[in-house]
Amino acid sequence: ALVNLLLTGILLYSITSVAAQDTTVIRDLQLWSGAKVEKTFAKDWTLSLEEEIRFKQNISEINKFFTEFGLRYKINKNFALAAAYRYTRDKKRDTSYETLSHYNLDLRYKGKINFLSIYYRLRYQKEVEGFNLLDMDALYIKHVRNHITIRYNDFSTLEPYVSAEIFQAFTPYQSPRFDYYRIVGGIRYEPGNFGEFKVAWGFNRELSSSQPAMVYMFTVNYTYKF
């Protein structure tokens, strides 16, 4: 029911947003590829380090690359808390790079219904230019993100999945707005002790612009856990 409610809300909001204005949609094909290492200790704590690079302009040039450090605490078999810091180098239109910093705080839930696993994540994140996360006067953008993933887990090593996420933005001197949504479908492959591979296809649809971006993404990720 929660999944249906989120998907219905995304669909209705995008339809009314497009219907309310004469829009020109800007499309792009991107490649997002990354690798992550996770270390579990003291049973319920997990440290992670992730590197990712993203290509834009139909996968012809680098869009951004980032390094992210994370920490997760497992409350019980269903709930967990997580926090992370991300350092990003973002390519601007003049081909120079700007530095961005952001942190995020998560509340996570996972459950199981027969052969389906359901994952929900509520995320709060704040991003600023440079390293000014503690500067209360620095310009920022904050997002509250609702993310749901459903995995089919009736196979031994393969898990097809689909996910939906909607981003609500908070910026200085502006009313909160739904910024964009993301739909992704893919396959998770975990061959024993060799780590976890994910290959997926999806899109981001911008909602709050007169010329909204429709970004199609092909994603390839690897995670090693120990």
Describe the fold and architecture.
The chain is mainly beta and 226 residues long. The chain has one helix at 2-19; strands spanning 26-41, 45-56, 61-74, 79-91, 97-113, 116-129, 140-152, 158-170, 177-189, 196-206, 213-225. Strand 5 and strand 6 form a beta hairpin. The longest helix has 18 residues, at 2-19. It is globular, with a radius of gyration of 18 Å.
Summarize the structure in short:
This protein has 226 residues and is mainly beta.
Key attributes of the depicted protein:
single chain; 226 residues; mainly beta; eleven-stranded mixed β-barrel; 1 helix; 8% helix; globular
As a percent range, the share of strand residues is over 45%
Unreliable stretches (pLDDT < 50, length at least 5) are 16-20
Return Rg in Å.
Answer: 18 Å
End-to-end C-alpha gap? 35 Å
Provide the spatial order of strands within the biggest beta sheet: 1-2-3-4-5-6-7-8-9-10-11
What structural class do the secondary elements suggest? mainly beta
User: Quick one: how many beta strands?
Assistant: 11
H-E string: HEEEEEEEEEEE
Mean pLDDT: 90
- Sheet bearing the most strands, described? 11 strands, mixed, barrel
Number of helices: 1
Helix residue percentage? under 10%
Q: What coarse outline follows from CA principal-axis ratios?
A: globular
